[in-house]
Here is the input.
Amino acid sequence: MSKSRVRHHVNPLRSQFLGRTLAPLDLPPTGEIEVELGCADARFLFERAPHVPDTLLVGLEIRDKMVALVNRTAGELGLRNLRAHFAHVNVDLPQLFPDGRLTRAFINFPDPWFKRRHRKRRLVDPELVETLYRKLRPSGELFFQSDVYELALDALAVLEDAPDRFQNVAGPWSFLLDNPFGARSLREARCEARQLRIWRMLYVRV
Ligand SMILES: C[S@@+](CC[C@H](N)C(=O)[O-])C[C@H]1O[C@@H](n2cnc3c(N)ncnc32)[C@H](O)[C@@H]1O
Here is the structure.
């Protein structure tokens, strides 16, 4: 029996992800869109779907086998408003959506790269924050969570450095106590089962 191996980590600095352009996504002209950056199996979006049946839920993921898995599962469940696309978020996000088209962006437990020397591989950096500012509509929301304090603190610092772009719902330099979206990602559920502390932030786009 042949086994299909799903890589656990992909190095986002690999040259195959750079120097190419993805086409804009085929999107409905109107209606709300929420996106999870680095969705893996998209458990978060599958749990979110019943809460927002009229919203299009899009997962972006760099591991194409996970993309195929998400789309197969959505098909099996008959979920027409949930889908995943292959993307390197830091490279491709500007092309994928028109400006101002997103209602919400979720960044759930973004990287395995938490060591300081891996900082340049991290998902949340000033460039991503600027791109999300352009892609979210005014009053759109950006939710971030991680169980790695250093990662969360770095993301907090990047976002607090853009007060003309995003405002922290919990107050400046503050974490949110809970996840208000009625959905748990796989990593989140695992952290909660182990009673690990989760660092969450919710920002509103100015
Ligand atoms: C630690 S997992 C968390 C998955 C899920 N969000 C959760 O909370 O269970 C991080 C995911 O982000 C993906 N990822 C990492 N860097 C990415 C990038 N630059 N663009 C797209 N996906 C990325 C990884 O492949 C992985 O599936």
